[in-house]
């Protein structure tokens, strides 16, 4: 059924976004952005992925706070949460709220 296929594809896209977040975190940690000629990690992500700078900002925000939100980012890697969901958490949530938001986001979809 088309609805099932849509759900499956969205889960795969979420998992891919999770891997992109991991790559961006590593690029930033290892300070590899400068060797590309990009002015910032956001510019690099937008350039290499073909997404808008706003969406690249979301990826960078999640990458920068991945260690603070391990449950949420793991759910993204596993395809259970979307980049949009985890992005809002990374951009706005207080430290120490990972478990709360991982549980809330899982039932809010």
UniProtKB/TrEMBL annotation:
Protein name according to UniProt: DUF222 domain-containing protein
Domain DUF222: 5-105
InterPro entries xrefs: DUF222
């Amino acid at each position: 059924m088309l609805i099932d296929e849509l759900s499956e594809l969205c889960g795969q896209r979420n998992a891919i976004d999770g891997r992109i977040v991991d790559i961006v975190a590593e690029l930033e940690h290892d300070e590899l952005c400068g060797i590309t000629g990009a002015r910032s990690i956001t510019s690099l992500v937008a350039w290499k992925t073909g997404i808008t700078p706003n969406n690249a900002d979301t990826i960078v925000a999640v990458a920068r706070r991945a260690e603070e939100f391990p449950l949420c980012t793991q759910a993204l890697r596993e395809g259970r949460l979307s980049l949009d969901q985890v992005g809002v958490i990374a951009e706005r949530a207080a430290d120490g709220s990972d478990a709360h938001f991982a549980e809330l986001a899982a039932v809010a979809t």
